[in-house]
Give the backbone structure.
Amino acid sequence: MNSNPLWDAAAVEQAVSRVASIRPAYSAIIGFYGAVFVAQAHAAVKTAPRAIRLDEALLEMKTKEGFSLVEPSAFTVDIPAAEKLLAQICEIAIRSGEKLGAAGEALTRAMGDGVAMDALFADVLTERGRIEELAKTMDVSPQMISLLLYLAVKPSIAAGVRQLTARLTGSHENQSNCPICGSAPIIGELDAEGQQWIHCGFCWHRWPVKRLACPFCSNRDSHSLEYLYSEDEPEYRVNLCGGCRRYLKVADTRKMSRGFYPPLEQVASLHLDILAAEKGYSHAVASTISNVE
């Protein structure tokens, strides 16, 4: 059994059910992502990509200088497991919104026609343009194709994170980008002790940051740091930085009566992204989530 609560299928399913009951406006989005998250959790148990190759001398230098350990392209993919999961995700997508359905049907046809999925999975990590070529050929959204492929390789990425986390040394508190892959954070979390953590938007590694500082530009000027908060949703707040004009959603797990599953909380709080954008703030991580219908 997978010991990581992020990949405990029963816990994920319970979180999805709970959030769906309190966020009826998100029924379409949670209908898609909830089913995908549960499928990912089941797939993770049987996903075993080959170990990531590491240059020990380079790794030592990066660790010493505080750089991220690898680029996203260093992750490896368990191709058979990812293909099996992709087929399931495509079925879920076909039952979902029009854009997702078209992407799901296109990838299902591509798999049936013998298109090399390993090359497309690699494109998720390297962005070489093959996904756009396929999308153009099949007249579907490349963003939707990329999304489905990323969701299919996510358990492989998580396995790589487990390998790399064991190689982290020293303190990574307040690092603006992911210590594992260098990507930007997507959502924050306050744990039971009030410590703030942020989660990577690509590999979902979690690392600590100070609460009274912008995680993107390290601004600590209290006059330019604000937050949005609603008594109707006490578990959420949106931290705003007047210095770099970026924002970060933060979930306070002390005020949650449900299990905290970061990817689910990210997709179930899009109204907060809209609110921050309306106030002139942007996010470091581009998202196609709002366009799934």
